[in-house]
Amino acid sequence: MTKIWYVEDDGQIACMVKEYLEERDCQVMVYDRPEAVREAFEAEKIPDLLILDWNIPGGSGMELCRWIRARWRELPVIFLTVRGDTRDIVNGLGGGADDYMTKPFELEVLYSRILALLRRTGGSPGQILVCGEIRLDRSRMEVWSGGRKVPVSQTEYQILLLLMENIGRTVTRQSLLEQVWDSNGSYVNDNTLTVAVKRLREKLGHPACFRTVRSFGYRMEM
Predict the structure, then answer these.
(1) Fewer CB within 10 Å, N side or C side of the chain?
(2) Exposed, middle or buried, 220 (CB in 10 Å: 0-12/13-18/19+)?
(3) Distance (Å, rounded) from C-alpha 31 to C-alpha 182?
(4) Parallel, antiparallel, or unpaired for β 148-149 and 134-137?
């Protein structure tokens, strides 16, 4: 599920975009003021993509875009605004946005722009797996927790990948042993899995969504 933040003070437009994107398996959080977005970022929460209006109460979309770009250079940003003058478009793209759309707009076109931008940045839907504060990028084989990149071993990555691919379902210990170790032609005892999971949990900061199903296996819960 692709996590999108939308900065828009027009409730009707925000609701329309949110409903449309959520029907397409996106998770959309709407903010109507720049300070709320800054607080979310400073809490080390990072979306997969940001949609940004230019004219917003309490500041401007351009100022917010520059603030974000100075801290997160690779975060995809799309301006969605009524300001359609050539100078505005040039300034918006020059200020750090990756794409620029003017209102009125077609929802289908916006979604197509989102998909295209995520493909270019390596974050196409299906490549980013999210559970709580944990983000796993399959295209880059990277793991993030609480906004920080987490260094994991190949074994730890494979364990987490299997759990993230089965969010809401229990993955048995036997299944993990077979898929992580036996597929590589290695035989290990049950204690090896216990130790690997313990280390992975510690690296992730003991997230609440990472659950143990006693005497059976593990599961990730939203």
Answers:
(1) C
(2) buried
(3) 47
(4) unpaired
